[in-house]
Amino acid sequence: MASAPSNPGPILGRVDGSGRLVAADPELERLQVEAGSRIGASIALPQLAAIVRVAQRLRIPVSRRVLAAGREQDVDMWVRAVPEDEHVALTIGQWSSRPASSPRLAAIAGAEEDKLLPEALGWSVDEQLRLVSMAPALAGHLSCDPADAAGQPLTTIFRLEEGEAGDMPLLDALVARHDFTGQRVRVRSSGAELVLSGTLLLAPDGTFAVFEGSAAAQASAPPPPRPTLDAAIQTALRSPLDKIVESAREMRETPDGEVSEEYAAYASDIATAAHHLLSVIRSLGEQSQSAGGGKVDLIELTSEAVGLIETAAKERSILLGVQPARKLFASGESRSVVQILVNLIGNAVRYAPKGSSVTVSFEQGGRGCKVHVADQGPGISPADQERVFEPFQKGSEEGEGSGLGLAIARRLARGMGGEIELKSEAGAGSRFTLTLPAA
User: Fold this and answer.
1) 5, part of any domain
2) Model's pTM, two decimal places?
3) I need a labelling partner for 47 at 20 to 30 A (CA). Which of 194, 203, 209, 298 fits?
4) Residues 145-163 pLDDT 10s
5) Rounded to an integer, what distance in angstroms lies between the CA atom of residue 358 and that of residue 376?
6) Are 179 and 271 part of one and the same domain?
């Protein structure tokens, strides 16, 4: 029988390029033998074989929990498969035995391998939202081959849609590392609308492993309540930040000659970042549930955003130019506006050539209040201008970051009744425009 391992450490194994288990610790070897095979032969446990195939196909580490059937007991384990040249290294932890469930190995030995796979949840993706597996029933509904879909970003099959409150549960769950429900999607090939729900699985070390989920044609769950902070927690967080701001001010305002210019600039950066954190805390503490927000000064918020980007601009010798203006009042939520502007200005600084300039200008007209962010970068072709607003899409293959910034920024803008638009030509720079309703 497949008893619990005697050693406290991980159980190791190795699979060659033909799917043969060529090396295994005693516990794994015993399970292989009980399943009717041996060392040097193909893996007899279909769950392990499926994980190995995905790791080989994608050339990335794959981790997931597995329940395998022994002769007299079931074995619950966490399996990590890591491609190494032509082999796949297996590391198994959290091995534990439990009473057997039917059917046993003898009864299912002749069944097709795919029928043994744990596919009831429909699909699974890794931390980059690349498909690890897809149930045949779901693949049939989507008119795609599960093998061809493996390794593709989820967003190549589904277009993520905002909920009624402008939320995207999947993106929020990816950032906050929790389960999600009610993510609306549209199938790109057919236009059909579905709703995704997912469960987060963690690796033994506590890091993200996979999302496993299901797809259904049903109404989404109500949006989660807006996060808030208890008053006592606000006080506990604000007190040390207030002290940081005050200390940074003292460092910055020391008479000339007593501190270096770089040290004073560093103090200024600290003060600006602490101010930003304080405003985030205030925003989380607000109880207002309104989508649009109140009256904000876009000039003031732009100045705050520029302050958070200045250091990065200096490192790349980028000149940040801001059009002189006094007041420009719009309807919105201050923290959301700052987050949008930090993303737009930060992207411009990141993609602009070293030594070039990024300009920020303002406009007020019939369609509301506008903030324009223009760079002298490589530009974006017309075919890609809508794509960059989709989750996990970047301005270039060499771009840094997760590819979520513009997707989140547009969602925040639309949640305030506004929009983000792009005008660009390949080789001629880009101009992103944030538009908000006038206050």
Assistant:
1) no
2) 0.42
3) 194
4) 777 787 888 888 888 888 7
5) 7
6) no
3-state secondary structure of 322: strand
% the chain with pLDDT above 90: 15
Residue with tokens 């795609």: 144
Q: Is 259 in the same domain as 174?
A: no
Q: Cα 175–171–60 angle (5° rounding)?
A: 75
111 part of a folded domain: yes
Query: In this predicted model, what pLDDT tens digit does every residue of 286-318 receive, in sequence order?
Result: 433 344 468 899 999 998 888 888 888 888 899
Domain of 253 in residue numbering reads as 225-289
Cβ neighbours of residue 365 under 8 Å, at least 6 residues apart?
Answer: none
Closest CA to 92 of 144, 153, 27, 187: 27
3-state secondary structure of 138: helix
| Same domain assignment for residues 35 and 133 | no
| Cβ(361)–Cβ(323) below 8 Å | yes
What's the number of domains the chain is made of?
4
Q: Does residue 69 sit in the same domain as residue 169?
A: no
First to last CA, the chain: 73
Please, which residues have CB within 8 angstroms of residue 299's CB and are 6 or more apart in sequence?
Answer: 325, 326, 327, 328, 362
Q: How does strand 357-365 pair with strand 368-374?
A: antiparallel
The sheet with strand 21-24 has its strands ordered as: 21-24, 11-15, 87-99, 73-84, 62-69
How many CB atoms are located within 10 Å of the residue 268 CB? 18
Does the CA dihedral 146-147-151-155 come out positive or negative? negative
432 and 322 together in one domain: yes
